[in-house]
Recover the amino acids of this structure.
């Protein structure tokens, strides 16, 4: 059986005729900025209390941060593809200026002098029918440590409707029903102008409606995870080129597109979940700004992101990373996200409360934080990030990931825990609900661990070397490296 090296794999559709073209979008970003209204926190009885949905459950003041919520109102056009059958990314207005009111969450340094100039602008995830903030959940320690701003926007009718109509109603925890009474997003296709308009507002220094008016915003990096990543692919291809500030600089300076599988979103349509067909060339990226597309092992075959692989050989402004051993939902996202499920929704603390095997202990946020840091540098001073990293595939039958003798993936970004394994790190789990998105872990026995590592000191030494190598390659920051070294030293492996 012949295994195909991934760095030699090329996209499965012909790109030669379009790969060098920057999409010539046939629209112009609206000149009118949206307006905002501050939504205060109201304490009191359960019936009187009013707090932001998915407000952060930790005390941000300990990091010198504050959290604020605003409604955002404007008018957004609806677009259609100029040539849908020809798979052109170019768009045109088909319905103009439909009013909307959505909301944004802002987590920012309380003291302006702490701000590092970067805004991470998250397309909040709508998969559950309500907002989730998985990029923040994975990377809040990095964001607050660096002094960056995080802004999350509700960007889908189903989540806007949930905030307005569903959250205060049974069976969820009672909240002030008037908090979101003015929210309105009639059509999915409004999302593109909503994103560009609010991004432009955040970059407009001194604008009275700008929640960041007292900050000098230098860069906005759009981020999104899972379904939200599909929005970003469409935005990059069809809207980025024309989404500019009055000065001509882009509203969005770069993109981190995470765990999104192989599809982009259609610009409009009757189905709010409508994705582009498999094999559509617009599922590939044609960026004109620094862009990273990151996939965990879960997405590579299961959602099959290998079909849209591209590297810097295809576009110098693109990096494509696959994380071996990583899972779509890791133990950290599960634990952190569960806090909001309990507090805001009265639901169990996990979408996978009964996994068939233990959760995957490899934390994807360690890699994502390093990549976000490198993306920030790429945008701010031109320092190129690491080259694309792809896993090895077996293409001889149904496409599968090549596994080593331990049952772990070969190739890709290799976190230290995978290089010095304690078992097989699985890209999915089984059980009810969303368990298929959760990673699993098949641990080695104590005897296997002793045979492999001999004693505790040898295990710690190997982990230390693996951590150092990951740092050198640019996939681990020093702060997370210290945590991994301490975890290894404090473990009972080899004792």
């Amino acid at each position: 059986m012949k295994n195909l090296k991934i760095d030699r794999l090329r996209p499965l559709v012909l790109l030669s005729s379009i790969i060098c073209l920057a999409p010539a979008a046939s629209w112009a970003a609206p000149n009118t900025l949206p307006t905002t209204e501050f939504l205060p926190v109201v304490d009191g009885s359960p019936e009187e209390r009013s707090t932001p949905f998915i407000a952060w459950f930790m005390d941000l003041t300990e990091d010198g941060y504050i959290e604020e919520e605003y409604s955002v109102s404007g008018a957004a056009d609806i677009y259609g593809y100029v040539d849908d059958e020809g798979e052109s990314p170019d768009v045109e207005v088909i319905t103009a200026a439909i009013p909307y009111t959505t909301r944004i969450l802002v987590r920012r340094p309380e003291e302006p002098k702490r701000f590092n100039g970067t805004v991470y602008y998250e397309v909040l995830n709508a998969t559950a029918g309500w907002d989730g903030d998985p990029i923040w959940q994975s990377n809040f320690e990095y964001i607050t440590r660096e002094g960056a701003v995080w802004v999350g926007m509700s960007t889908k009718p189903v989540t806007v409707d949930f905030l307005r109509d569903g959250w205060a109603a049974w069976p969820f925890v009672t909240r002030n029903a008037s908090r979101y009474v003015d929210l309105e997003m009639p059509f999915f296709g409004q999302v593109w102008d909503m994103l560009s308009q609010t991004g432009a507002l955040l970059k407009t220094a001194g604008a009275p409606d700008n929640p960041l008016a007292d900050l000098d915003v230098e860069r906005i990096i759009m981020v999104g995870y899972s379904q939200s990543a599909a929005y970003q692919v469409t935005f990059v291809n069809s809207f980025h080129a024309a989404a500019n500030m009055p000065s001509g600089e882009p509203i969005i300076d770069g993109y981190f597109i995470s765990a999104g599988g192989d599809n982009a979103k259609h610009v409009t349509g009757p189905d709010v979940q409508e994705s582009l067909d498999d094999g559509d060339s617009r599922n590939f990226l044609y960026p004109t700004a620094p862009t990273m597309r990151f996939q965990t092992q879960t997405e590579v075959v299961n959602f099959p992101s290998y079909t849209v692989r591209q590297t810097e050989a295809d576009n110098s402004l693109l990096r494509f990373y696959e994380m071996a051993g990583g899972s779509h939902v890791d133990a950290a996202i599960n634990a952190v996200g569960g806090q909001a499920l309990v507090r805001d929704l009265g639901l169990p603390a996990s979408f996978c409360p009964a996994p068939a095997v233990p959760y995957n202990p490899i934390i994807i946020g360690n890699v994502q934080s390093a990549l976000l840091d490198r993306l920030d540098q790429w945008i701010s001073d031109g320092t190129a990030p690491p080259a694309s990293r792809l896993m090895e595939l077996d293409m001889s039958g149904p496409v599968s990931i090549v596994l080593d003798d331990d049952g772990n993936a070969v190739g890709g970004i290799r976190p230290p825990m995978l290089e010095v394994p304690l078992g097989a790190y699985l890209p999915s789990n089984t059980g009810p609900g969303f368990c298929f998105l959760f990673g699993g872990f098949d641990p080695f026995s104590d005897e296997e661990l002793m045979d492999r590592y001999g004693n505790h000191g040898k295990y710690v030494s190997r982990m230390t070397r693996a951590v150092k190598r990951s740092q050198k390659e640019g996939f681990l920051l020093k702060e997370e490296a210290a945590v991994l070294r301490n975890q290894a030293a404090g473990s009972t492996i080899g004792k």
